[in-house]
Amino acid sequence: MPLDDEIALARKEIVSDGYDMSVGELINLYKDKEIRIHPEFQRLFRWDQTRKTRFIESLLLALPLPPIFVYQGDKGVWELIDGLQRLSTIFEFVGILLDESGALRPPTALEGTRFLPSLADKKWTQTSDNSDDGIGPTQQLQIKRARMRVEILKQESDPQAKYELFQRLNTGGQNLSEQEIRNCVGVMLNPTFQEWLFGLANGKNFRDTINQTDSAIERQAHVELVLRLFSFRHVPYKAGLDVHEYLDDALVKLATDTQFNSSSEESIFSRTFSLLNTIMGDRAFKKWNGSDFSGKFLMSVFEVVALGVSKNIDAIEVLVDQERTDFVRKRCIALWAEPTFTQYSGAGVRGTSRLANLLPLSESFFRP
Q: Which of 333, 346, 363 is nearest to 300 (CA)?
């Protein structure tokens, strides 16, 4: 198909509208629950006080503002797609912002800036009749009258459009990881499925074996690992496909697959990591150095061991206790002498080559 035709076809799949709105109107929409920020998105509100202050300063100085993007649902409620940091800053400053648990966040005080040093310690309203720490009614009106462009993705658009738009607008944005963006897409697609992933990712046996740092957990590395395992189990990897694009596509397929048996998969997942934690503990996905497993978590080991054990969990559990322990431990050691694994698990190997060569190895390698 010629490029012009492809562009025309893609444009037909996205039905949009847009207009300028005052900040005061956006505040009222949020108060009336007519613009919605999903709790999973709100967790990603990360601007520090300096960036928040600079944005409020921009409103006061009437500087041009980038648009926000929303999706209009079947009841007319707007679902925020892009603009989280800006809108959250406004709502927090005004004192109406709810956090991810639904609790009201305390209003913030601003910092002084080069142009407006008197903003230091100013709040939306003064804390007492005798204080001078509020910005005052004149500046409140100025902020309320500031205007922002709202781009609206309508319900008539292709169902995939809002997920695609969210990923494109947020990738490379406010320091979000690929999985944090993916989590938000998962919530849009199927909140029950995404909550299920969160629950598995926070299980003790799983968390013990993957042994991730607090920073990695904050960036949702544990949720990505759960998604990787189920993706490998149910969505064939196509050689050459970018790993994160593969996970993006796999999430959509898994979250929308009515035939996906979450009860059965949860049982396999729980048994797999109970077994691995009992036998290997936090050494399950580390390098064999000739005498022990040590070092950092290795994705290549996780991809082979977790997938291989999950595919063979019934047969492995049949083995008697010591035999089962010896089998799993010896297989984890033998992996480091397996030619395909040693060739495609090194630091210089691209993720596409690694997956294409290691995933087919996993099931047979851990078959008793």
A: 346
Instruction: Using the predicted structure, report yes or no on whether residue 172 has a pLDDT greater than 50.
Output: no
Q: For residues 57 and 36, give the distance between their C-alpha atoms in angstroms, rounded to a whole number.
A: 25
DSSP three-state, residue 124: coil
With bands split at pLDDT 50, 70 and 90, how would you rate the model's confidence at 253? very high
DSSP-derived secondary structure for 201-249: HT-HHHHHHH---HHHHHTTHHHHHHHHHHHHHHSPPPTT--HHHHHHH
Sequence-distant (6+) residues with CB within 8 A of 182 are 224, 227, 247, 248, 251
Return d(Cα 87, Cα 89) in angstroms, integer: 5
Q: Is the pLDDT of residue 11 over 90?
A: no
| Rounded average pLDDT over 37-54 | 84
pLDDT number for residue 161? 64
Pairing of strands 68-72, 147-153: parallel
Which one, of 112, 115, 58, lies nearest residue 86 by Cα?
A: 58
As a whole number, mean pLDDT of residues 316-325 equals 95
Hunting for tokens 């998604």 — which residue is that?
227
Task: Measure the CA–CA gap between 68 and 90, rounded to whole angstroms.
Answer: 13
Which amino acid would we find at residue 139?
Q
Neighbours of 127 (CB within 10 A): 12
**What does the angle CA 159 – CA 223 – CA 269 come to, to the nearest 5 degrees?**
105
User: What is the spatial distance between Cα 77 and Cα 73, in angstroms, rounded to a whole number?
Assistant: 6
Residue whose pair of structure tokens reads 């691209």 in the numeric block = 350
Chain segment 93-136, per-residue pLDDT in tens: 999 999 888 889 998 899 999 899 999 999 999 887 778 889 99
What is the pLDDT averaged over residues 287-309?
96
- Terminal alpha carbon distance of the chain: 50
Percent of the chain, pLDDT > 90? 60
In whole angstroms, give the CA distance from residue 301 to residue 210: 11
Contact (Cβ atoms closer than 8 angstroms) between residue 358 and residue 304: yes
User: So what's the pLDDT on residue 10?
Assistant: 58
- Rounded CA separation 93/234 (Å): 45
Q: Where are the domains of the chain?
A: 3-162, 177-365
Q: Strand, helix or coil at 50? A: helix
